[in-house]
UniProtKB/TrEMBL annotation:
It holds the Pfam family T6SS_TssG. It comes from Halorhodospira halochloris (Ectothiorhodospira halochloris). InterPro entries: T6SS_TssG-like. This is Uncharacterized protein ImpH/VasB. It comes from the Bacteria.
Length: 309
């Protein structure tokens, strides 16, 4: 258990926090030369599901088992799967009809779902030799940390889903959201007035073409934003800039996106994980322990009143 990557350790210990797609794609991303095998087994319990997965474990043969809640297939509030299972359980007390229904769902529905997820997230190239050639090319770059996610660099760019998978595996958490076209504000250099004509004229200046109002303008599609969390405070510290994992995450994301892409990583810390303080409290005083503006601490004076009798 301790030898497993952090993401897989959390899948075993807190499998119910994962969606079925997250769990399957996580195992698929670690599946190297059939060394990792898994099966999906629908749970026969008829209790209302808290999530899509009841639990995950590894049997004595090293097989990963995902016990899935059947009622969560179409959402916890859907009456259709619940009606099917209740009817099967009522007609056959021995459980044969119920088991036949669950096997049908497992053999058909889950299989189609996994095939669709593989296609969307491009888990493997249809021709194995292509991945082998790309792997040889990538590993020859001599970049630190590529051993964590070599397969993600061996395929064509597949958008935000592959980047999301990369961040999930490096950060060890599945709570990752990627936005691939984020609007950003950039400064505009001022220029001398031209002699093109008057504002509003047929041959004059046009807002958005020849000039803009203000000192900034919006650029669409130039930024990729990655939001990780909510995280515990210690996990956020481990992923923050300057830490080993944080620097590895920045390096791998930058290498994956290439030099022409910009990315922003935001770490969300769960409520209650950090100490909060109120301006003006005994511990924090404006002008003494805190200040406004500036990037460095400076000398300050503390004013207080004395009451004389």
């Amino acid at each position: 258990m301790d030898k497993l990557p952090l993401a897989l350790q959390r899948l075993v210990s807190r499998g119910y926090d994962f969606s079925l797609r997250q769990a399957v794609m996580l195992l698929e991303s670690f599946n190297d030369e059939d060394s990792l095998r898994y099966v999906i087994r629908p749970s026969s319990e008829l209790s209302f599901p808290a999530g899509e997965i009841r639990r995950c474990w590894i049997d004595e043969d090293g097989l990963w088992i995902i016990e899935a809640n059947v009622l969560a297939l179409a959402g916890g509030g859907s009456p259709l799967p619940h009606y099917w299972i209740e009817r099967a359980a009522a007609e056959d007390r021995s459980g044969e009809s119920l088991r036949a229904l669950l096997n049908l769902i497992n053999g058909s529905v889950y299989s189609v779902l996994v095939d669709c997820w593989r296609h969307v997230e491009q888990i493997a190239h249809p021709h194995g030799w292509v991945d082998s050639w790309r792997s040889l090319t990538v590993t020859s770059r001599s970049h630190d940390g590529l051993g964590l996610v070599p397969d993600l660099y061996c395929r064509l760019r597949s958008g935000k889903y592959a980047l999301q998978s990369l961040v999930q595996r490096v950060s060890g958490t599945m709570a990752v959201a990627v936005s691939d076209r984020v609007h950003t504000w950039v400064g505009v250099d001022s220029a001398e007035p031209t002699e093109q004509g008057c504002l509003g004229g047929s041959t004059g200046l046009k807002v958005g073409e020849d000039f803009c109002l203000g000192g900034q303008t919006v650029v669409a599609g130039g930024m990729t934003k990655i939001v990780i969390g909510p995280l515990q405070h210690l996990d956020a510290v481990e992923l923050s800039p300057g830490s080993a994992r944080g620097e590895a995450l920045k390096r791998l994301v930058g290498l994956y996106l290439g030099q022409r892409n910009q990315a922003q990583i935001e770490l969300l810390i769960a409520p209650g994980e950090r100490d909060t303080w109120v301006m003006g409290a005994d511990k924090w005083r404006l002008g003494c322990s805190t200040w406004l503006a500036g990037n460095a601490e400076r000398e300050s004076s503390l004013l207080f009143s004395i009451t004389t009798e």
